[in-house]
Specification:
The structure is a single chain. By secondary structure, this protein is mainly α. The chain has eight helices and three strands. The chain has a single domain, classed as Cell wall hydrolase SleB, domain 1 (Arc Repressor Mutant, subunit A). It has a three-stranded antiparallel beta sheet with strand order 1-3-2. Helix 5 crosses helix 6, helix 5 crosses helix 8 and helix 6 runs parallel beside helix 8. It is globular.
Length: 226
């Protein structure tokens, strides 16, 4: 009986099949290119279907000169200017001080040390307090939407201004004006206006409101009737 060698008794090694190189068959590259092409076509289709800024009622970019010219073209409806009623704060001492702080802070950041501008801003806040669609507290009105980067009602509450050191020039003036406003003082020059903006910008909502006053560089509006 023939003897087998030790080498012949070992099991034969299985050869693993060689993987085909991706570069050889090109399938993954072709799939990726097709995917990118499809994505590009989809983006083009979406872009053509999206409304324009005008259709979205969003203000298009303007230079300062263009914005001011546009704002001047919108006349002030003095016949729609109606003086607001006096406001009397009914809360306790601590709540009154907090409300005065919020009023003064808004006035200082929005109007600087301009006394008439400060009083105008405060009157808008008090008008909003008594208008539908706004919070029921003074601080609530001032900081409405401050948690959203682009949803705040007063820009200083969401543009990082509060993180910087506040300007103290005009603070005492604003605090005194705030206390007077909470005790019934009315700034009749802006009437019952609930919106305003500087004359160097054109907000998207301008044409849906009625302009009733101007105090310094700020323009004031009420809601249109009907």
């Amino acid at each position: 009986m023939p003897q087998r060698s030790k080498k012949s008794l070992l099991p034969a090694r299985r050869q693993r099949p060689r993987k085909r190189s991706a570069k050889r068959n090109g399938a993954p590259e072709r799939g990726l290119l097709l995917l990118l092409a499809a994505a590009g076509i989809l983006l083009l289709v979406v872009a053509t279907l999206l409304p324009t800024p005008h259709e979205l009622n969003v203000a298009e970019p303007m230079t300062v000169a263009q914005a001011r010219a546009s704002n001047v073209a919108v006349s002030i409806q003095t016949d729609r200017l109606v003086s607001a009623e006096a406001f009397y704060f009914r809360g306790g001492r601590a709540a009154r001080e907090q409300a005065a702080e919020c009023l003064a802070t808004a006035a200082l950041y929005e109007a600087g040390d301009d006394e008439r501008g400060q009083r105008a801003v405060m009157q808008v806040i008090l008008n909003r307090l008594r208008a539908p669609g706004f919070p029921a507290t003074i601080c609530g009105v001032v900081y409405q939407g401050c948690g959203r980067p682009a949803g705040c009602q007063f820009s200083f509450t969401c543009d990082g201004s509060l993180q910087r050191r506040p300007v103290h020039v005009g603070w005492s003036l604003a605090k005194r004006a705030a206390r007077r406003a909470l005790a019934g003082a009315v700034f009749a020059d802006v009437g019952k206006a609930t919106h305003y903006h500087a004359d160097w910008i054109v907000p998207y909502w301008r044409n849906s409101m009625t302009k009733v006053a101007q105090v310094g560089p700020h323009l004031f509006y009420i809601r249109k009737v009907g």
